[in-house]
Amino acid sequence: MADIKLENVIKRYGDVVAVKDFNLEIHDKEFVVFLGPSGCGKTTTLRLIAGLETPEEGDIFIDGQRVNDLSPADRDIAFVFQFYALYPHLNVYDNIAFPLKAVKVEKSEIETQVKRVAEILQISDMLNRKPSVLSGGEMQRVALGRAMVRQPKVYLLDEPMANLDAKIRVDTRAEIKRLQHEIGATTIFVTHDQVEAMSLADRIAVIHLGVLQQIGTPHEIYNRPQSLFVAGFMGMPTMNLLDAELTSQNGASVLRLSHTDVYLQISPEQQAPITSRGQEDGWVFGIRPEHITAANQPSERQIPAQVHLIEPLGAVNILDIRLGTHSQTQDPILLRVRTHPTFRAAVGDTVWLGFDEKEMHLFDQKTEQAVW
What we know:
9 helices
């Protein structure tokens, strides 16, 4: 297998810069997921690696070799497209077997490999059918199988499970992860689905507007976001992000959530990077819903607030808590809290909130970068 390296890669379409000064190194046998919203540049980056697009600037290396001028066929990759790209005149068996036949693998070995992959993807009873009689999900599984029978240097998968049913998606996700570790293949997987990214990746590359926002393990991306975009994009529901300013209360420095009566105590370690920047406002406070506790009875250092909305989701409840009102727009300032389903509260009730100080985040409003 191989490592992949992108150095200062730029791709433009007219006046639109689809990939901006992209730098990334993917290690041998690593499973990396490109994650981001539609139009962020993740598929374009994948196509640049595959050789289906050419960068205006920068270099791309596979296994130490610069591949900018190599054709896709000479890069030893397997690409799974979002929209199948099957051969319509071949049946399912021959579509899956095609890469092996192209390199003249023995017939008995081809049959063994095709049947193994077909069983994994639950398409064994479809091997004699043509693509025209298959559903979208079935065609996607055939496209996956065609890539899985090969053993190239790199696997590139562009949202390969977008058209699969929910149960098959879960099963296929687990199988892709198992196979990737078993084969030891360097793999890049493109998706906008956070669950897929978190469950599959050794590392996640979060991309927004063609810019690599952060690269890290699923734990790092979720728990230590380096920018406002990553903080707001990751998580279901997403991180609470509220404007804040540094002020004092009873002689101590505290963080006040703007347009509310909520004051949060901060440690000297948390205060230091704020004061060093020489500004008292222009901050965004962040905390995930699961890092806030809600109680029906008051206790020390907890904050009273009113329940605005309740979303029972079965395993958890999501409470929308009203902290105040924007002075200009008169819109409510809401905080989302995740509770156990047995927690009892009704709309309009007062609950008392506690914040996990170790899980609080602060971002610079101007640069949108993490402070802590």
